[in-house]
């Protein structure tokens, strides 16, 4: 594709990332701060193993280090130096310490400061959560609110802000357990904080997608600046101290949890002192047998408990600790289905990906945001789908039209198909696993910011609209500390029907887009450049290939970006295997799903 064709094609896509000036300023400062971060980590190693910064600093005779304020501020400053936003980290935490300590514990250490950072992020998100409704009822935007796509985007923001609040709260609740596997707890926290950032980014995506509302979008972005920075600060602290906290217990400090009043608990659910409570092993033990015994059966011809999947979903108990199984008999089900965040441990299985099919046609052109355009949406944790087909039949002219979105943590899709054009499969957030699936589409047809692994899947680009080119992936990691990315392992990349359009492995939706393709077959349809540019910073992406084969796997002509790694080592590739990347041994065996833990 020549430059002019590429430019015109890019303009035709509505989901273009606008490079914010503040982000540019951050990138210019990054190199200068690398040494500060390295030195700060060294100091943190001493802090978390029992020494205080005050003791270390006492050798400096030029300051009065007996002051509790100096000691607390020193600890905060050192901890905040590892974050992307050290000034907002320091000012917010210093102010919170002064307001809440009342002279108690004047020298808080790393784990206490981390909890405080979560409290600060939680408070800011609580303040933010009412913003969408305020905008809807405001006279300032009464003319713009008539736009259906903007209305949809604002509803998205309301949902996403509340989801982010829940993920912050989950992070604190997980620390209440005490003991256990500290590495697992920290990985859970990193996952939920990564998702909280993704939730906030998705709100802005929807507003930009609505178009023509730049003032409103900038107002929301400005209102979100504190919450996004504070969440990023907590994520950075959790990520940097992960290795040194590995051998420590993390008792919760009740004094720091008083922010969670009864009102907040009612709004965002009692997450139980034992969270995370995944489905019991005995309940998952036989889940992926060919025909597990269902709680409910759906059949379009009336031979089951319900004729539609949506009716069956309404009968699922909320926040169940036991598996709830729905069997959907062979047939075409024309409906939109949502497994919302209050439906835990749900399994839906059918009679085969080409025999039990859920189909709808929500899309951007007709006024539905990408986030809610999915024919099937899975948000409740521990979701499993098996032998099901998911379609969006809106067609390429309708632009973004999702077949399935998963925001479900530790979700599994086994022998399923996903069929649409632009934005087929939205792997939005949290940890996900796909095995023996088939995915078809055109532009960015596997996209999102989950930590997701695809194994033994068939990935099939199809012919897009004239003037468009195909991009298989569009990964959207926006923060270097997020533990997210796409890992495509032992898959088949082949064209669907007569594909003539230029087709790339992917393009970066955000600055830290991370996609690794390994041990997979690549057909000759693939453009030898491999990757297409977007408006993200291509120097910070991570695009890697490892031991792929087939005519499209030759890496000699790949783009020469700093972030492209055409031939990574075994050790580098292993980081993106099921066990290393999504810690699959902690949750996949209970579901009896076949998977390869390593490369």
TrEMBL record:
It is found in: Secreted, Cell wall. Acts in the modification of cell walls via demethylesterification of cell wall pectin. It catalyses: [(1->4)-alpha-D-galacturonosyl methyl ester](n) + n H2O = [(1->4)-alpha-D-galacturonosyl](n) + n methanol + n H(+). GO terms for biological process: cell wall modification; pectin catabolic process. NCBIfam families: PME_inhib. In the N-terminal section; belongs to the PMEI family. In the C-terminal section; belongs to the pectinesterase family. It comes from the Eukaryota. Its main location: secreted. Residues 71-237 form the Pectinesterase inhibitor domain. Its EC number is 3.1.1.11. SMART domains: PMEI. The active site is at residue 444. The chain crosses the membrane at residues 34-57. Keywords: Aspartyl esterase, Cell wall, Disulfide bond, Glycoprotein, Hydrolase, Membrane, Secreted, Transmembrane, Transmembrane helix. It is an enzyme of class 3 (hydrolase). It holds the Pfam family Pectinesterase. Pathway: Glycan metabolism; pectin degradation; 2-dehydro-3-deoxy-D-gluconate from pectin: step 1/5. Signal peptide: none annotated. One of its GO terms (molecular function) is pectinesterase inhibitor activity. InterPro entries: Invertase/methylesterase_inhib, Pectin_lyas_fold, Pectin_lyase_fold/virulence, Pectinesterase_Asp_AS, Pectinesterase_cat, Pectinesterase_inhib_dom. It comes from Ricinus communis. This is Pectinesterase.
